[in-house]
Amino acid sequence: MADKKQNIEKELLSYLPQKDEWIGNLVSSMEYSLTAGGKRVRPMLVMEFARLCGGSEEAAMPFACALEMIHTYSLIHDDLPCMDNDDLRRGKPTNHKVYGEACALLAGSGLLTLAFEAASSGRAVELNGTEKCLQAVKVLAESAGAQGMLGGQIIDLESEGKQVSVDHLKVMDAKKTGALIIAAAKLGCISAGATEEQMKAAVCYAENIGLAFQIVDDMLDVTSSTEELGKPVGSDSENEKSTYAALLGIDACKQISEELTDRAVESLSVFENDTTTLRNFAYYLLKREN
Amino acid sequence: MADKKQNIEKELLSYLPQKDEWIGNLVSSMEYSLTAGGKRVRPMLVMEFARLCGGSEEAAMPFACALEMIHTYSLIHDDLPCMDNDDLRRGKPTNHKVYGEACALLAGSGLLTLAFEAASSGRAVELNGTEKCLQAVKVLAESAGAQGMLGGQIIDLESEGKQVSVDHLKVMDAKKTGALIIAAAKLGCISAGATEEQMKAAVCYAENIGLAFQIVDDMLDVTSSTEELGKPVGSDSENEKSTYAALLGIDACKQISEELTDRAVESLSVFENDTTTLRNFAYYLLKREN
Asked: How far apart are CA A111 and CA A27, in angstroms?
């Protein structure tokens, strides 16, 4: 898995333009966040589903990178003063703390735009053909847009300081974090030319680990330390945010996230290829400490 | 031309998602800026070049809308407090003045993302085929990205308060405003399946009116009134911005913008179809008062 992560990180950078005298700082700022670490959950899923459906990881890689760029853009913009106003991300100063707000704004938009360059790049077309690349563009745009991730972010904004229900949180998270994780499953399937049954199972896996992921995130904000997490803990309760942890308690959260993970793993039964990696991945996300 | 504008404005809105209880404010905020007027220069160019190269305006429309969405997103983000901090745009309060900074940030990103949905939409594919849609995605992403418009914006930011040369302004504007105008020409040609010679002439036209457009913009900031312009005049000199008007003087600017317009019009000679509209359009942009 470490090898794959390294491959992803190498290819991610390959899409960045040259740092010339004109746009050098913008490109550096984009690179700063692209290389700031992270678990690379989404690109890993893209490539693993591609493999599972009989495709190649190499072919899925441009789509995997595109999705990670979109995820990274969302983190940069999320951290901005007008959003969460965070100073730390993965233990490092946030993009705007290093490059200033204006540059961070542009860098985020730059990565969102670069995602579509990657998905329509010569490399992507050579490995996947035009049809699949355009399907990938469509999935990327829909999952990142107002009905997907951005929709989740506006719900999140409008929920600030309000007590909301668990069902409300579920709708929000299905968009805010779920949409990109489901996109990961779909992109892998698209690259591999998966059957409808495989696509359905992949989306089911993604939906379940997506929600589990968010519930675990909420728990970590309560149970982890700032050092482990790479960002301040307790920020949710400090911001009076409704979370699964606050609404249901840690024990129920543990149980639900385990059930969701089991359900995700069960959905893998339709695949003929070895599903060990995705099974382990689901449990790794459940047991992670940051 | 008024008819065409109306068609564009109607189709632009057709790509917006439903305003449901969850994402209603985000969609309203996107709609607010999409319907805030403007000359619709870029979509008009897309459709006119499509027609000129033997294509249909209808087929070019999804690409025209995509480009206008990208232009609109750039205005929303440009007006944000961390960028130009403008309160007025086309005589109306800017997006963040109405919806707040966070929502405006998301609405801008939402429009950028929606552009790629439009270019990969069922409608776009039905009218243009997969190949041309993917080419359009590529042109949109490259022209809006770090090597295009965003690159121009970072140059602009880094030039603030500095005295820069006319050549510096030209590099900046070729990216900041030129890239999307050139994209307009290319998108029209792509939709129509233009020849290489046609594409070259279209890009030449776009480059020349693009620069002329910017020079006229600078002049209007000096010579127009706030009422005519729909935004405060004199803001460039107030912000100590280097402009063509400041560096070259109004008379030289007039002459250069006329020469550029003539050159643009000359490049139309390769087209067999009637070029009256594009000729008039170039002179309209030159003579405009806002």
From this structure: 10
Output the DSSP codes for A233-263.
Answer: TTHHHHTT---HHHHH-HHHHHHHHHHHHHH
CB contact under 8 A, A151 and B117: no
Q: Do B23 and A154 touch (CB under 8 A)?
A: yes
Are the Cβ atoms of B109 and A112 closer than 8 angstroms?
Answer: yes
The residue among B60, B203, B79 whose CA lies nearest residue B133 is B60
Q: Which residues of B touch A26 (CB under 8 A)?
A: 146, 150-151, 154
Q: How much is the average pLDDT of B162-186?
A: 96
Report the pLDDT averaged over residues B64-78.
98
Cβ-defined contact of A26 to B146 (cutoff 8 Å): yes
Identity of the residue in A83, A130, A141 whose CB atom sits nearest the CB atom of B130: A130
- Do residue B105 and residue A134 have CB atoms under 8 angstroms apart? no
Question: Which residue's structure tokens are 């735009």?
Answer: A113
Q: pLDDT tens-digit profile of A14-62?
A: 999 999 999 999 999 999 999 998 889 999 999 999 999 999 999 999 9
Q: What is the pTM of this model?
A: 0.95
Which tokens hold the place of B221? 């900031």
User: CA-CA distance, A250 to B271, in Å (whole number)?
Assistant: 70
ipTM of the complex: 0.95
Q: B174 with B152: CB under 8 angstroms?
A: yes
Contacts of A161 in chain B (CB under 8 A): none
What domains sit in chain B, N to C, each tagged with a CATH number?
A: 2-287 (1.10.600.10)
d(CA A28, CA A49): 31
Q: What is the per-residue pLDDT across B15-54, written as a single tens digit (0 to 9) for each?
A: 999 999 999 999 999 999 999 988 899 999 999 999 999 9
Residue of B nearest to A16 (CA): B146
Task: For residue B167, give the 3-state DSSP assignment.
Answer: helix
CB contact under 8 A, B117 and A106: no
Minimal Cβ distance to A157: which of B73, B103, B131: B103
User: Please, what is the average pLDDT of chain B?
Assistant: 94
